[in-house]
Design a protein that fits this description.
Low-confidence stretches of chain A: 1-10
Structural class of chain B: alpha/beta
Number of helices of chain A: 16
Mean pLDDT of chain B: 80
Radius of gyration of chain A: 23 Å
Low-confidence stretches of chain B: 247-274
Structural class of chain A: mainly alpha
CATH class of the largest domain in chain B: Alpha Beta
Strand order of the largest sheet of chain A: 2-3
Oligomer: heterodimer
CATH architecture of the largest domain in chain B: 3-Layer(aba) Sandwich
Number of strands of chain B: 18
Largest sheet of chain A: 2 strands, antiparallel
Helix content of chain B: 10-25%
Number of strands of chain A: 5
Mean pLDDT of chain A: 84
Order of helices and strands of chain A: HHEHHHHHHHHHHEEHHEEHH
Chain lengths: 317, 413
C-alpha cells in the first residue's frame, strides 16, 4: 500500500482518448488519426530522405542530378538537334518539370509504400495512410531542392520570372499536393492486392501521362492550334486535354516562371510566336480551383477505398 | 478503479487461407471469382473487459489465437466482427524493434519509434536519456542500428516502448529477451507499471509468469475463450486443455520442451497371476472438493484410499507413491513405517493415507500404489498411475511446495 501511495498517481486520473478497432472506421475519424500522427509523418519523411542517400558520397546531390540530366537531354534534343526555336527553352522545360517531378516521384514511391513496409504494417499500429503521405512528403522536399536549382538557373541565365504573379505558385501547389495525396493513397492500397499496379503506374505515369502535359512542348504554340479544330463525338479535343488535372498546374508554373505571355520571336525563324496562353491570372486561379475541388473529391474517394482495403493489409502482405 | 480500460466486444476474426495466391492482374482475370480458399476462424466471440490498472494474462497453446487477439487490440488487424474499445494511449510490444530502420542510428531510431508509438518530439526529448540508460546503450547510441547485436536491438525496442508513458501496455511474449538480468529489469518495470495504475495485457507461455504478475487471466483454445478468472483458476483450465490435447508439458517449471519428460522405466509387475496372496483392487483420491471439482486446492486435506483383497493372513505394507509428470518421485510413503499394523487378515479392506494439509503447488501428479512384503523384499502388487491428482494453486507462490512462511521487515536504526 505504501508503494502505491508513493508512486506517481497521474495515470489513473488523466484525460484519455478512446480508440475503436473495428472493421469500418469513418473517414473523418481516420483523418483525425492522421492529424494526431503528424509527428510520425515528419519523422518518416526525414527517415526516407536520410536512408535514401546514406553512405553515398554525393548524397542529396543525386536527387538533383537525375532531373538535371533529364533536363539536359531535353534541352539538347529540342534546343540543338530538333531546334524548336523557343528562346531559353530550358527555363520553360524546367518550370513544367518542377511540378511534374513532384507528381511523378510521389506517385511512383507511394505505390510501393505499403508493400515495401510490410514489416511495419504487420507489427505496429498506426494510420497506414501515413506511409503513402510520407512519399508525397519526401517528394515535396526534393521539389524544394529543385526549386532552389531553378532559382540558380534563373539568376545565371538572367531570366526574369513574373514577380507580380509569384503568388500563383502556391495557388497551383496546393491542388497539386492534394492531387498527389489522392493518387498516392489510392495506388498504395490497390497495389497491396494487385501488384501489377506498380508496373502499370511506371508505364503510364512515366510516358503517356508525361507527354499529355505541356512540358516539352508549348501549349499555345502546339496544343491550342492543333486540338481546337478537332472533335471526338462532338466534344472538342482541347476539352479532353484539360481533363488531365496536371495541365492547369503545369501551365501555372510556366506562366509564373517562364513569364513570356506575349509574342516571342523564335530563335530559328524569327517569327513572332505565342508560347504561353494570353490568359489573365484569374483564369489560372479558376483552373487551379477546379483542380483543387476535383482533387479533394478524389482524395475523399481514395480514403474510402483505402479504409475498405486497409483492414486486411496485415493479412495480405 | 471501476473504469474500463479495454473492452473486447464479441470479437471474431476470420482468415482466408488461399491455396494459391493470385496477385497479378493476369492471374486475377483468369481465376476471377473462384480463388480457392478455406476459412479459418482464428477468434470466435471473444468478449471480456479489462479494468483500469488491472493486469490480464492470456494463456493458450500455440495457434489458439493469442497473438491474433493482441493484434486486434493493438489495431494491427481489424476484427471481422465485433470491436475493441481502448481508452487511453496504447503501446503494443508485438515484436521488439519492429519499426527500426537499420540504416539510422540508435538516436534517430528512438525518435522514429517513439513517434510510431504516438509521441511528440518534445515528449521523446524528455524521456530520451531514460531510454538510453534503460537500454544500456550509452556508447552505441550514435551507431547505426544495423551494427547492433540482437540483444542490443531488443533492449532498445523494449526501452522505447516502456518509456512512452502508455495507459495500456500490450506485451506479446517479448519478456523472454536479453539475458536474465535484463529480463528481471523488464519484469521490474512491468511491476512498476502496475503500481502506477496502468493497464497491462500480457501473453505468455509460462503459467508461472502469469500467476506472478496478473490479476486475472483468460484462456484461449482454438480461438474460443474457455476460461476467464483468477490466475490460479485460469492456469488450471489451461492445463486441462493441454492434457486434452495430449501435450506433455512440464508446467510450472519454466518452458520446458514438450516431450522432454523422460520415461523412467515404470515398475512392471506380473499381476496376472491369480495366485497373488494380496491385491489392490481400487485406489481413490478424496479431498473436500471431491464430486464438485476435479482438482484439489493447495493446502486442502487429502486422503488416498486403497482397497485390498487378501487371500490369506499375511504380513505386508502398503505403499503410496506420488510422482510428477516427469516420473520423478516426490513422495513415497509406506504404511508399515507410519505405524499401521503389519498383520493383514484374510478378506477385503481399506487402507487410508491421510494428509491434514497437502502443500503441493500446482501440477498434475500421478498416484501409484502397491503392496509389498513388510521388509520390502517382495512386491505383491503394484498399480502404476492408479489415480491422477490435480492441484490448483490459488497463491502467487511459484514452485513445488507451499511451505508456511512469514515475513517481517525491521530497518536498522
Amino acid at each position: 500500500m505504501a508503494l502505491e501511495a508513493a508512486a506517481p498517481s497521474g495515470v489513473a486520473g488523466r484525460a484519455k482518448t478512446t480508440r475503436v478497432v473495428a472493421s469500418h472506421v469513418s473517414v473523418p475519424k481516420r483523418v483525425a488519426e492522421i492529424w494526431r500522427s503528424r509527428q510520425l509523418l515528419i519523422n518518416m519523411v526525414s527517415t526516407e530522405i536520410r536512408v535514401k542517400y546514406k553512405n553515398s558520397v554525393l548524397g542529396l546531390v543525386w536527387s538533383l542530378l537525375a532531373p538535371a540530366m533529364a533536363l539536359l537531354v531535353y534541352a539538347i534534343v529540342f534546343g540543338v538537334a530538333l531546334k524548336n526555336g523557343y528562346p531559353e527553352f530550358v527555363i520553360l522545360l524546367f518550370s513544367g518539370l518542377l511540378a511534374w517531378n513532384l507528381f511523378q516521384t510521389s506517385v511512383l514511391t507511394a505505390t510501393g509504400a505499403i508493400v515495401n513496409n510490410a514489416g511495419l504494417v504487420k507489427k505496429v499500429s498506426f494510420p497506414r495512410e501515413i506511409l503513402a503521405l510520407a512519399s508525397v512528403g519526401s517528394a515535396s522536399v526534393f521539389f524544394f531542392f529543385q526549386a532552389c536549382v531553378m532559382v540558380i538557373f534563373l539568376v545565371v541565365l538572367h531570366w526574369r520570372p513574373a514577380f507580380g504573379e509569384l503568388w500563383l505558385i502556391p495557388v497551383a501547389l496546393v491542388p497539386l499536393l492534394v492531387f498527389c495525396s489522392a493518387m498516392a493513397i489510392f495506388l498504395a492500397a490497390v497495389n497491396v492486392y494487385l501488384r501489377d499496379t506498380q508496373h502499370l503506374i511506371e508505364v503510364v505515369v512515366g510516358s503517356a501521362w508525361f507527354w499529355a502535359c505541356p512540358i516539352v512542348y508549348s501549349f499555345a504554340h502546339i496544343v491550342e492550334p492543333k486540338l481546337s479544330a478537332h472533335h471526338i463525338l462532338g466534344i472538342p479535343l482541347l476539352w479532353l486535354y484539360f481533363l488531365n488535372p496536371m495541365v492547369p498546374i503545369v501551365l501555372t508554373f510556366e506562366r509564373v516562371l517562364y513569364a513570356k505571355t506575349g509574342l516571342v520571336p523564335l530563335t530559328t525563324t524569327h517569327v513572332p510566336t505565342q508560347l504561353l496562353p494570353t490568359w489573365g491570372s484569374m483564369t489560372y486561379v479558376e483552373m487551379d480551383a477546379i483542380v483543387l475541388g476535383v482533387s479533394l473529391l478524389l482524395l475523399y474517394g481514395a480514403m474510402v477505398v483505402f479504409g475498405r482495403l486497409a483492414g486486411n493489409f496485415a493479412e495480405e502482405l | 478503479m471501476g473504469n474500463i480500460a479495454v473492452e473486447i466486444q464479441d470479437v471474431s476474426k476470420r482468415f482466408r487461407l488461399y491455396h494459391q495466391k493470385y496477385t497479378s492482374l493476369k492471374e486475377r482475370v483468369i481465376h476471377a471469382g473462384r480463388t480457392p480458399y478455406t476459412e479459418l476462424w482464428a477468434l470466435r466471440d471473444i468478449g471480456f473487459e479489462v479494468e483500469e490498472g488491472q493486469t490480464v494474462g492470456i494463456l493458450g497453446r500455440n495457434g489458439s489465437g493469442k497473438s491474433t487477439l493482441l493484434k486486434c487490440v493493438c489495431g494491427v488487424l481489424q476484427p471481422t466482427e465485433g470491436q475493441v474499445v481502448v481508452r487511453g494511449k496504447l503501446a503494443g510490444l508485438l515484436e521488439l524493434g519492429a519499426g527500426f530502420q537499420p540504416d539510422l542510428t540508435g538516436r534517430q531510431n528512438i525518435y522514429l519509434n517513439g513517434s510510431l508509438l504516438g509521441l511528440a518530439k518534445s515528449d521523446i526529448d524528455k524521456v530520451f536519456d531514460e531510454v538510453v540508460a534503460f537500454a544500456e546503450l550509452d556508447q552505441f547510441i550514435d551507431n547505426q542500428v544495423k551494427f547492433y547485436s540482437s540483444g542490443m536491438y531488443v533492449r532498445l525496442g523494449f526501452a522505447v516502448a516502456v518509456n512512452v508513458d502508455p495507459d495500456v501496455l500490450v506485451i506479446d511474449e517479448v519478456l523472454a529477451v536479453g539475458d536474465e538480468r535484463f529480463q528481471r529489469k523488464c519484469l521490474d518495470r512491468v511491476k512498476e507499471f502496475q503500481t502506477e495504475g496502468r493497464t497491462i495485457i500480457f501473453v505468455s507461455h509460462s503459467p508461472d509468469q502469469v500467476r506472478a504478475i496478473c490479476d486475472q487471466a483468460v484462456v484461449l483454445s482454438d480461438g474460443r475463450m474457455v476460461g476467464h478468472g483468477t490466475p490460479g483458476e485460469a492456469v488450471r483450465i489451461f492445463r486441462e486443455h493441454l492434457l486434452e490435447a495430449g501435450d506433455i508439458l512440464a508446467l510450472g517449471h519454466g518452458d520446458d520442451e514438450a516431450g522432454q519428460a523422460e520415461e523412467a522405466g515404470p515398475i512392471t509387475v506380473t499381476t496376472t497371476d491369480s495366485s497373488h496372496p494380496i491385491r489392490i483392487t481400487e485406489v481413490t483420491v478424496e479431498h473436500p472438493g471431491t464430486g464438485e471439482r476435479p482438482y484439489l486446492i493447495t493446502d486442502e486435506p487429502l486422503t488416498v484410499s486403497l482397497q485390498y483383497s487378501a487371500a490369506s493372513v499375511m504380513t505386508a505394507s502398503f505403499v503410496v507413491e506420488i510422482r510428477d509428470d516427469q516420473s520423478k518421485v516426490l513422495l513415497r510413503t509406506v504404511s508399515g513405517d507410519l505405524g499401521a499394523p503389519l498383520e493383514i487378515p484374510a478378506g477385503t479392506g481399506t487402507v487410508s493415507f491421510q494428509w491434514a494439509t497437502f502443500p503441493f503447488l500446482d501440477g498434475v501428479y500421478d498416484v501409484s500404489a502397491g503392496v509389498e512384503h513388510q521388509a520390502g523384499a517382495q512386491l505383491y502388487d503394484w498399480k502404476e498411475s492408479a489415480a491422477k491428482l490435480e492441484v490448483m494453486n490459488p497463491t502467487k507462490n511459484v514452485g513445488l511446495l507451499n511451505l508456511p512462511v512469514g515475513v517481517t521487515l525491521v530497518p536498522d536504526r
